[in-house]
Design goal:
Shape: globular
Largest sheet: 6 strands, mixed
Number of domains: 1
Helix content: 10-25%
CATH architecture: 4-Layer Sandwich
Strand content: 25-35%
Strand order of the largest sheet: 5-4-3-2-1-15
Number of helices: 5
CATH class: Alpha Beta
CATH topology: Nitrilase/N-carbamoyl-D-aminoacid amidohydrolase
């Protein structure tokens, strides 16, 4: 099938995991009622964004995947007949943790997981303290409704990740995200940062001829130091925004996409045809010294 209804659940979070899970399920049910067939939740939706500090107690938030949260969502996926993309804090083994997204198919089956490859370390985003970089490589998932690629937040700044996932056959790229503005910043800086965030993802849509879906959280966290900027959106394969959520409201939106448009755009703008793969070896280097 080429036409697929994509659901985006943009929400704020609190400290209590059960409250966040119930809110996410409510958003999933609302998206389903609006016709969604694939529903994507935001990054680390089951908790506050805990990476604002280096606190060993936060490791207690982690769980196995498959595990309690994915099992709950598996039941919901099977009940509603939809695909669910769920970003979770994975405890892989004692002392080994990942930022991981599980994909549940429309019959409730667990299709697998993607572990975040690019791990940031910025003020209030101390992810290297918590997460081991992903070691599963880039992944696609052949769901009932579409073949999808899943990347996570900081991955969205890297064209290599989008390119590889697209070359593997992804028809739609999903980016569960947790990103916001420091409340100490001025409006011009905030606007520039959001525009850069959206532009880089739209560029992945253009370069690869695929739909891109970014799902971000909203709300004030970190004792008021951080305002997550929402702005969840869907881009068509030529970078046009089909729909975008607000910066400050919880929203569940559903957007129809037509994956056949990939062929149309790739035929008329044949970027993949004209790639010079024989010349790309330098991209594997950290930096090219003279």
């Amino acid at each position: 099938m080429s036409k697929v209804n994509i659901g985006l659940v943009q929400m704020s979070c609190v400290a209590d995991k059960a409250t966040n899970m119930n809110k996410a399920i409510e958003g999933i049910r609302k998206a389903h009622a609006l016709g969604a067939q694939i529903v994507c939740l935001q990054e680390l939706f089951i908790s506050l964004y805990f990476c604002d500090e280096e606190d060993y107690d936060n490791f207690l938030l982690a769980e196995a995947i498959p595990g309690p949260s994915s099992d709950i969502l598996s039941i919901i996926a099977a009940e509603l007949g939809i695909v669910i993309i769920a970003s979770l804090f994975e405890k892989r083994a004692q002392g080994i943790y990942h930022n991981t997204t599980a994909v549940l198919d429309a019959d409730g089956s667990y299709l697998g997981k993607y572990r975040k490859m690019h791990i940031p370390d910025d003020p209030h985003y101390y992810e290297k303290f918590y997460f081991t970089p992903g070691d599963l490589g880039y992944k696609i998932f052949k769901t009932k409704f579409a073949t999808i690629g899943v990347l996570i937040c900081w991955d969205q700044w890297y064209p290599e990740a989008a390119r590889i996932t697209s070359l593997m056959g992804a028809e739609i790229l999903f980016y569960p995200t947790a990103i916001g503005w420091a409340t100490s910043q001025n409006e011009a800086t905030n606007t520039e940062q959001y525009n850069a965030w959206q532009t880089i993802q739209r560029s992945h849509a253009v370069a690869n001829g695929v739909h891109v879906v970014g799902v971000n959280r909203v709300g004030m966290e970190q004792d008021g130091r951080m305002k997550f900027w929402g702005g969840s959106f869907v881009s068509n394969p030529f970078g046009t925004i089909i729909q975008q959520a607000s910066h400050d409201k919880e929203e569940t939106i559903v957007v129809e996409v037509d994956t056949q448009k990939t062929d149309q755009y790739r035929t008329h703008w044949p970027f993949l045809r004209d790639r010079r793969i024989d010349s790309y070896e330098p991209i594997t280097k950290r930096y090219i010294d003279e």
